[in-house]
Amino acid sequence: MTSVELNNVTKKYDKEKVVAVDDVSLSVSKGELFGLIGPDGAGKSSIFRILTTLLLPDGGTATVEGYDVVKDYKTIRGNVGYMPGRFSLYQDLTVEENLSFFATVFGTSIEENYELIKDIYIQIEPFKKRRAGKLSGGMKQKLALSCALIHKPSILFLDEPTTGVDAVSRKEFWEMLKRLKQQGITIMVSTPYMDEATLCDRIALIQSGKILSVDTPSGIVKSYHGKLFAIKSDAMYKLMNDLRAFEHTRSCFAFGEYHHISFKERDKDYTEEVLNYLQAKGHTGVEIKSVTPAIEDCFIDMVEEKKSEA
Amino acid sequence: MNSTVIKAEKLTKRYGDFVAANELTFDVRAGEIFGFLGANGAGKTTAMRMLCGLSVPSSGTASVAGYDVYKQTENIKRNIGYMSQKFSLYEDLTVMENIGFYAGIYGLTDKEIKEKSVQLVDQLGLHDSAKKLVRSLPLGWKQKLSFLVAIIHQPKIVFLDEPTSGVDPVARRQFWDLIYQAADTGITAFVTTHYMDESEYCHRVSIMVDGNIRALDSPANLKKHFSASSMDEVFQGLAREAKRKED
Amino acid sequence: MKQLFSFIKKEFLHVFRDRKTLMLLFGLPVVQLTLFGFALTNEVKNAKIVVADYSKDIATKQITEKIEASKYFDVEKSLKSHDEIEAAFKTGKIKLAILFPENFNENLLHLHKAQIQIIADASDINTATTLTNYISAIVADYQRQLMKDASIPLTITPEIRMLYNPELKGEHTFIPGIMAMIMLLICVMMTSISIVREKELGTMEILLVSPFKPLMVIIAKFIPYLLISFFNITSILLISVYALELPIKGSILLLYSESLLFVVTALAIGLLISIQAQSQQTAMFGSLMATMLPTLLLSGFIFPVENMPLPLRIISNVVPSKWFFIIVKSIMIKGAGISVVWKETLVLTGMMLFFLTVSLRKFKIRLA
Predict the structure, then answer these.
(1) Is C45-163 a domain of CATH 3.40.1710.10?
(2) Global pTM?
(3) Which residue of C has its CA nearest to A89?
(4) Max CA-CA distance within chain C?
């Protein structure tokens, strides 16, 4: 069963000068946790707004739960939960007032659907008399999610729910999403954090309005062709410059405590050459190993591939 | 690498009964890239404000670039650069106008401004966009530009408050290249971030929990100490101890 | 219905949470009225007047003394004939002249009625009316006193003449003017800001995605400011009647109905601005431009429309506050009924329908 479907959707701004969404096609199955992964300005929010019927596409068609986003916008509006990019809460209203307001706007009450939000809401309930503006980022995020869930939507659109939230709250948030998924809710979520991609069932990598790839996280990693190496030495910055100057290097970038390096001949193992080269350059404590690429490696690779094509 | 540019001794900030920053003691060396981590509400911003001379400490002592945070805040401001993700550049001014403006604030001469502008545009490869409004630049460029503008007066220290939020992975790495370059010229970088992989790029990292510095060492030593495989694990372990969830 | 109610409640919460704006909302009319009122009474104290007494009897003497005893008037001098009155006014110092005709007391005793002529310099309309009102009151007071002593019906008719501005254009203009201005400010600015704020916050996106109808959003935004405006109108009227002693001559019900018409027009203008504006600042600036300037300059509040050059007079016709201003003036001061102001009411109704239709049609069910 398909829950969301986009066919060649295009959206332009500024008198057609800026192409925010460029011929995007993808589909999300019922009950799936689907991630749109890409940096700011990649077109993620525009896609969400088209699907929540807030924006009209300039080209292509899209359906949500079988309804057309242009024609059947009224039906869609009542059935989706939406958390826009910024935590869209009334800062001057308390936690409880926010929640009960959104509940009545969607024609329900907190009591009626308390079961659904209980897990999340219980964490902020002790602060229910506090104004939303005075909450920390993590708590705002939980409140916003509660508000989006209060009318028992069959599908949730979460636009960058973890941006600006610390690592701990992010982790908690993804755990909540997993529990919601178990209740059968389809979730479409966007994030600029590549490490969150692995927590989705399937992901679409998106850059400059274009879909780079749609697959399961492991599928994306598998599709990385060639070998990738992690390398470190006692002088990381110098190491980076030296590696970039190395004749066989295709790309080299920092990745945690290592630098990740790929070579022009992608399947060849250059370990020996690299070690010799670095020794000559006076590096000490050099360590090199072959690694499985992460989603972030794949993303960078695809972006660079695109660039070299262009 | 031996001279100290930031030295804090039992630096504390209280708001009524609430201790936002509790007896912070640490030092940062010249040319170091110092990671300043903590969950939302752990007290990072409070600490940073005190060091930048924007907020008076409740007790304790601290010196930044050799100046006292109580009495010599004006001198401090002249010797630091500051960049936050949010408002560093004027969106409705061009790249050149932004550079000229910031250089002007820090009292660079017209000749220096001209030289600097050319140098910055070169460094960023922004030749085609020099006369364009900042609004029209991609986020990654904006962030790089605002970093270079923040260090246009060659400050001793640059404070970076979540500089890479929302930037794509390629631009994020290019940004760190710039930080390394700056560190190479002797500028100390004091960085907060939510990306744990970035904390690995720092020479040393401190982690704040509930207003206290709970850990301070090089990433390698921290991982060894907490027997963790990544900085993310170190951070999650410490931050989950937090009692307070509030700002 | 419950949804709407909850929405309205939310709007009220916003209003009451923001203490500063709240003070502004309710304090504005009081402050403005007090300022205007204070400026007015200040001018009225110790006004210099002249008396031309052709009768010179006990009654005229007693009235003159009574006037002189009040804190409002200083009798500058007595004139021998009324030819001197004009000259006295020309000096600019004299605000008012009183003229007793011959045989004042005799007429009073034998015919039981007498006339007293009050001549005011109406170039400063507010002062002139206030002063003549005071004199009339003093004379009426004297008349009551006489009747009590003599126990026969007596009437002293004050015959009032306004020099330089006989039709009293611009009388007590500041009350209707302030009413128009405050209602516009509150309704236009507050509605537009509160809608734009939801756009900025992003909550508008959620509301649009919800099954809540856009029309309901608008109604919910309207109602709190409508109520606040009515509260303000009431406080303006109370202050003007009890503190400034400026009575309402016409029907209060009519006055409120016309105000309702005007408030809805203002709300529709606010809505229209909020549709165009993307930030709270733009909304605020737009509201000020759309309300304050035309009301101050083109409604007749400060500068009489009749004296404007033709192009401005034509433009002034599209300013809603001009029409509201005429209506309120007629009702409050002249005691006019709907039979007199129906034309203006019709114009205002037309404007309301126009703004309401345009803004409802333009209200976007989607983002830009």
Answers:
(1) yes
(2) 0.77
(3) C203
(4) 85
